[in-house]
Write a structure and sequence with these properties.
Layout: H1 2-18, E1 22-25, E2 43-53, H2 54-64, E3 68-72, E4 80-86, E5 91-95, E6 98-113, E7 116-117, E8 120-121, E9 124-143, E10 146-158, E11 163-166, E12 169-172, H3 174-199, H4 202-213, E13 217-220, E14 225-236, E15 240-242, E16 245-260, E17 275-277, E18 285-294, H5 295-306, E19 311-313, E20 316-328, E21 331-340, E22 342-355, E23 360-368, H6 370-379, H7 386-395, E24 397-399, H8 401-411, E25 418-421, E26 424-430, E27 434-440, E28 444-459
Helix pairs in contact: 2-3
C-alpha cells in the first residue's frame, strides 16, 4: 500500500510538471481604504427665458374680476349710494411698456339732494343708472413668485352725464358723483392688482414641473443607465412688457447625474427652493453631466469584450473569463481571471481616460503590477510581452456613446414644444457633450461631461 501511494504521488507530480497549463499566484492589490461613495457633483446652469402673453393675463384677470366690483350702501355720509358692476370683459393693451386696462361698468345709485333748515329735513332722493368705461394704467413686475402690478385710474368716460329727473327736468348730479369716484376707484385698482397677482403665480406650476423633471428616468436598458436632474436654486429677472407679452429670464441651478446600475437616490424638496432676484441671466444652458459607472457594472461590460477572444503566442494561449475593477491610489486596478496555458488571476494598473471620438472610457498607461510581472517572468514569460498587454488593453474599455446619445434623445421631447401643463410650452436645443474630467471613488468611475444649448418657456393660451 505504501509503495502504491508513493507511486501515485510520483505520477501526479510528473503529470503536473508535464502539463501545458501553469498556475500563477500573484499578490492581489488591496482596494483603497475609503468606505463611502462620496464625490463632488458639478453644477449646471439652465437659463429659461419665460414669456407670458398679455392675452393670457387678460383671460386670467377676467376670471377673478366679475360681477359686482364696488358697493356703498351709506347715503348719509356723502349723499350718494352706489353699486358698480363689470358689464363686459376687461381689455388689456400694451402702451409704452405699461398695461392699459379698460373696464366697462354699470352704475346703479341713489343721490340725495336738498337741504336741512330749522331742523326740518327737506332732502329728496332719486335713483339713477348709467354706464361708463374706466381706463387704468398699470406697471408690471415680479415678486415672491407672483406677478405684481401698480394700477392707477387714468380716465373715466361717462356714456352720458350723470343726472336725475326732478319735476320733469334733468338735473346734473355730476358734482355729487365725481367725488365718489375716488372711493370706488381705489377699490377697483386693488381688485385689479389682486387679480393680476393671482392670475400669474409661478410657484406651484414651477415647483410641480421641477419635481417632475427631477425624477430619475432610465435612458438605456442594456447598460441600466439612469439620468437625474436635481434643482438646487432658482433665479429670476424683473418682468418687462413689450410686443404684447411679458418677458422675464428664469435661471435654474442644478446638478445632472447619469448612473450605471442603480437609479440615483437624491430626492427633490420643493420647500427648499428659493426664488432669487437677479439683474441679468446668461442665455445659454451650461450643463455638466456626471456619468457614473459602478465598478461592478463596468467590470461586467468589459468582461463581455473578452468573450470569444484568445491571447497568446503560438500554442500558448489564454482566455479571460472574468474582469474585476477597483481603485487604489487614484489608479484603476484591473484583475483578469484567466484559463488556458496559465490559470489564475493577473493584475494590471491603468489611468482611466475618455476618448472623445469613440466616446469610450478606457485605461491609459496600462501595465502589469510589479508582483504580477515577477510571477509572469517566473511562470509564463511570454505573457509579459508588451504585444499581449497591448491587445488586452484594447479590450479594457467600454462605450458611453449610446448612453449619451440616448440621454440626449430622451431629453429631446422636453425641448420640442413640451407642455407640462395647459398653455405652457418648453422649447430648446442641446449641443453635443464634451469630456471634462474623470474621478474615481471607492466603487465607481465618474466621467464629467459638459454640454450647452438654449431653452425657452412660453405661456400662451393658458386656461
Amino acid at each position: 500500500m505504501k509503495t502504491l501511494l508513493i507511486s501515485l504521488l510520483g505520477s501526479g507530480l510528473l503529470l503536473t510538471s508535464c502539463s501545458t497549463s501553469k498556475r500563477i499566484n500573484a499578490l492581489k492589490p488591496e482596494p483603497g481604504n475609503t468606505t463611502d461613495v462620496v464625490y463632488q457633483k458639478s453644477t449646471s446652469f439652465i437659463s429659461l427665458p419665460v414669456t407670458v402673453a398679455v392675452a393670457d393675463l387678460e383671460t386670467q384677470t377676467n376670471k377673478f374680476v366679475n360681477g359686482l366690483v364696488y358697493e356703498d350702501n351709506n347715503i348719509k355720509d356723502d349723499d350718494v349710494m352706489l353699486k358698480v358692476w363689470k358689464t363686459a370683459p376687461i381689455k388689456f393693451t400694451e402702451k409704452n411698456g405699461r398695461l392699459q386696462i379698460v373696464i366697462p361698468v354699470k352704475v346703479n345709485g341713489q343721490v340725495r339732494y336738498g337741504t336741512t333748515a330749522m331742523g326740518i329735513d327737506m332732502h329728496d332722493t332719486r335713483e339713477f343708472d348709467l354706464a361708463a368705461n374706466i381706463t387704468f394704467n398699470s406697471s408690471i413686475g415680479l415678486k415672491n413668485w407672483q406677478m405684481t402690478s401698480d394700477t392707477k385710474l387714468e380716465n373715466l368716460e361717462w356714456t352720458e352725464s350723470p343726472s336725475v329727473t326732478v319735476a320733469g327736468k334733468k338735473i346734473p348730479v355730476t358734482y355729487l358723483i365725481n367725488p365718489t369716484i375716488k372711493l370706488f376707484k381705489t377699490r377697483i385698482e386693488n381688485e385689479l392688482d389682486n387679480a393680476i397677482k393671482e392670475s400669474v403665480n409661478l410657484k406651484p406650476q414651477v415647483l410641480d414641473a421641477l419635481q417632475t423633471m427631477s425624477k430619475p428616468f432610465k435612458v438605456n436598458e442594456q447598460y441600466e443607465t439612469w439620468f437625474q436632474m436635481m434643482p438646487t436654486e432658482l433665479y429670476v429677472t424683473d418682468a418687462k412688457l413689450s410686443k404684447k407679452q411679458i418677458t422675464m429670464n428664469m435661471g435654474l441651478k442644478c446638478t445632472m447625474e447619469t448612473t450605471v446600475g442603480q437609479p440615483p437616490k437624491g430626492a427633490f424638496k420643493k420647500e427648499s427652493i428659493v426664488l432669487k432676484a437677479v439683474s441679468a441671466m446668461p442665455e445659454k444652458v451650461n450643463a455638466v453631466v456626471a456619468a457614473v459607472s459602478t465598478y461592478s457594472s463596468a467590470s461586467a461590460m468589459i468582461t463581455k469584450n473578452f468573450q470569444g477572444q484568445e491571447f497568446g503566442d503560438g500554442k500558448r494561449k489564454v482566455v479571460v473569463q472574468k474582469v474585476d475593477l477597483w481603485s487604489k491610489d487614484n489608479k484603476m486596478i484591473v484583475a483578469l481571471e484567466m484559463t488556458g496555458s496559465i490559470n489564475g488571476t493577473i493584475y494590471l494598473t491603468g489611468i482611466p481616460n475618455y476618448n472623445a471620438v469613440t466616446k469610450e472610457i478606457f485605461f491609459d498607461q496600462m501595465d502589469y503590477i510589479l508582483d504580477t510581472k515577477s510571477a509572469l517572468m517566473r511562470t509564463a514569460n511570454w505573457m509579459a510581452s508588451g504585444i499581449i498587454l497591448k491587445k488586452i488593453q484594447e479590450n479594457c474599455r467600454y462605450s458611453i456613446k449610446e448612453n449619451l446619445e440616448e440621454g440626449k434623445k430622451n431629453m429631446q421631447p422636453y425641448l420640442n414644444n413640451y407642455s407640462p401643463m395647459a398653455g405652457v410650452y418648453l422649447n430648446g436645443t442641446l449641443d453635443d457633450f464634451e469630456f471634462d474630467k474623470i474621478e474615481l471613488t471607492n466603487n465607481a468611475i465618474i466621467a464629467f461631461i459638459k454640454g450647452s444649448g438654449k431653452i425657452n418657456l412660453k405661456v400662451d393660451g393658458m386656461k
